[in-house]
Description:
Elements: H1 5-8, H2 14-51, H3 60-82, E1 89-91, H4 93-112, H5 118-145, H6 157-180, H7 185-193, H8 205-227, H9 233-251, H10 256-262, H11 295-320, H12 326-343, E2 348-350, H13 352-362, H14 366-382, H15 392-416, H16 419-458, E3 462-467, E4 475-476, H17 479-488, E5 492-501, H18 507-514, E6 522-533, H19 535-551, E7 554-558, H20 562-570, E8 579-582, H21 585-600, H22 611-619, E9 633-637, E10 642-644, E11 652-658, E12 661-665, E13 673-678, E14 683-684, H23 686-691, E15 698-701, E16 705-711, H24 712-721, H25 723-752
Parallel strand pairs: 4-13, 5-6, 6-7, 7-8
Antiparallel strand pairs: 1-2, 3-5, 9-16, 10-15, 11-14, 11-16, 12-13, 12-15
Helix pairs in contact: 2-3, 2-4, 2-13, 2-14, 2-15, 3-12, 3-14, 4-5, 4-11, 5-11, 5-12, 6-8, 6-15, 6-16, 8-9, 8-15, 11-13, 17-21, 18-19, 24-25
Amino acid sequence: xxxxxxxxxxxxxxxxxxxRTALLRGARIVAAAAVTVMxxxxxxxxxxxxxxxxxxxxxxxxxxxxxxxxxxxxxxxxIAIRRTARVSLSFIGAAxxxxxxxxxxxxxxxxxxxxxxxxxxGQLVLVACGVSTxxxxxxxxxxxxxxxxxxxxxxxxxxxxxxxxxxxxxFLRSGVQIGGHVDDPLGALVRALDPAxxxxxxxxxxxxxxxALTLAIGFCAFYLPRIIRHWGTYPTVILASLVVVHLGLxxxxxxxGAAQGAGWLIEPLPAGSLLRPPAIGSLLAFDPHLLLPxxxxxxxxxxxxxxxxxxxxxxxxxxIRRELNIDRIFVASGATNLxxxxxxxxxxxxxxxxxxxxxxIGGGHWLGWWLTLAVMAALLVIGASPLALLxxxxxGGALIAIGIGLLFNLSLACRTLPGxxxxxxxxxxxxxxxxxxxxGFLVGVVLAILIFGVEYGQIGAIRxxxxxxxxxxxxxxxxxxxxxxxxxxxxTRIYTLQGYLFFLNAQAVYRRAAAEAGPLRVLILDFRETVxxxxxxxxxxxxxxxxxxxxxxxxxxxHLTPRALRQVTRNGLAGEGRIQILNTLDEALxxxxxxxxxxxxxxxxxxxxxxxxHMADRLGGASGPGDFAPYMTVRDLSAGxxxxxxxxxxEALYFLETGVVSIEMEVPGRANLRLRTTTAGTVIGEIxxxxxxxxxxxxxxxxxxxxxxIDRAALARMERERPxxxxxxxxxxxxxLAGKVSDTNRLLEAEMQ
Length: 753
Ligand SMILES: Nc1ncnc2c1ncn2[C@@H]1O[C@@H]2COP(=O)(O)O[C@H]2[C@H]1O
């Protein structure tokens, strides 16, 4: 939070300096309120000029009354909900621009329908403004309740920056319109520059002078507070401009009436109270058909108001270094708008400038807030006719300052953005300025979707690609089969897919498969890390299926989500042809290995590994087939038989000669968890026997099996009778255990990649 003078004053400075500090603090609070009122009134008058311009000018007093009444009542509602006077309310400038378009459209329709009475037209335009503000109110309340802060991240920054830049250009145009009192400043400029129609006699010198003054005031109001960082700078610019214009008028002997007529001062406001019955009273006279052509504008207004609100809250949080409850602010401003809509007010919300002024000048004291409100209420009740002394270039200059600020932010943003983001920002900016906020915003949304698509498309659909030699199934195979798989494993490829698979990234999967070097036999597509797929992705998989048929490889889809599974089956992708769906990656790897081993000859479930020959192959030819026979017992198991159960005491270890055994972990209350599957040529039950502990897992025969076992007593006997053989056997066990550990590490590594 910024320090105020009161806060940095020495604590034990005595009663006199206490009084001085209090006085200084009081003065700052009053100054804060005065400046805030001035800024709010400038906004109010500028927006009233903006919305009630051209043929609606006669209703401007009614508009001003609606804005003031809505502000005063709305502020009370705002503080009742927020329960703190730290943040202040104001009208949302960009929303006022859209509301001006709504007002002009309704006025146009009414004119076509032959409704010309200015009083009636004014009231109906207020009702239309009220409807749009009501819509904004409802959406604000909803967003606040549903956590609006989440929205803050939704729109890409270049679109936001461009859109606000475009709004800045609209502010510049409106500022020149209001300040110079010219309806079409661009047209006037083009005419003035066209040599064919150039007629020095027709150039309105007064208008040119007003435009120049408006631009100068706008520039100073924007620029000076940035270089002279003092709370008094902005008010001084405003006061100085006021004095300069009135001195000029006095010097040229122009009366107030003449100055108003010539466009130097704003139109006279009616004397007396500005209190009027709320516009809602004319609701029954409002034909709902009038809303049909303006609903896109209302939608734009709501979106614009929401975005601006979020941006303002975020930027003020940064400036005052304090977190504001954005959801609460949305609910409070929503309620405020519901109240404001009764009067036909323009949309209101969290006021960036007024909050910062009250905070920076008055230290965020609650009194400053209440004083501001009291002055606004007094103007509403007693009357605001002295405001008519306000020079137009000043009202226009205030808009110009906001516009330059927005454009300045855009230029700052462009310095840090990459080229293509700058291009997007400028396109959105130009579309907003030339075709209006609605079109600009729509262009922004379309570009946002495109940016998202293109950016997302950059994230490859394939997170990693492994070969079957690197990623093996959980089957423990004998050394022969393992060696054959090591050789042929490269013919299996496993693609781990990720994210959302759609038209911009799914083709890459097909292209990668098509470009696979070497002969492919099995392609496994693992969907575990995907979140979904669109119909274009299905087409890419269909093409992969066709490629598989041409080149003779299988495609196995695993870990499909239930939704993706439905999509794939509905599209007829699986079942026929070479595409198959399996549940887990391990199942697919096992299938792939089975295929490769079958084609390499042998190692199917019927493989045989006779223990004695196996030992000789593993450790050299030192032992003959008959050497181990006296110590071993042969056991045949039928499929489903339990060879050993987890937790039991260990009496023997086994060598699997034929068949497949599944090693499972028993977890209480759950189905068994398969750890590994072992095939002929592997040892089971060595851990507990070596450790002298309990079985670490359960071993169940998956097919009918033949095992040869050696129990504790036979092992002891072998150690006594044939120590050479016992040593030989122990070396074999060490090799087996080492093999299992390195195998487990390989699996773990593949899992973690
Ligand atoms: N993670 C594993 N990998 C390979 N084999 C295992 C694993 N866990 C247990 N086993 C085998 O299952 C057997 C269960 O009994 P043991 O603990 O005596 O010896 C165990 C090993 O042979």
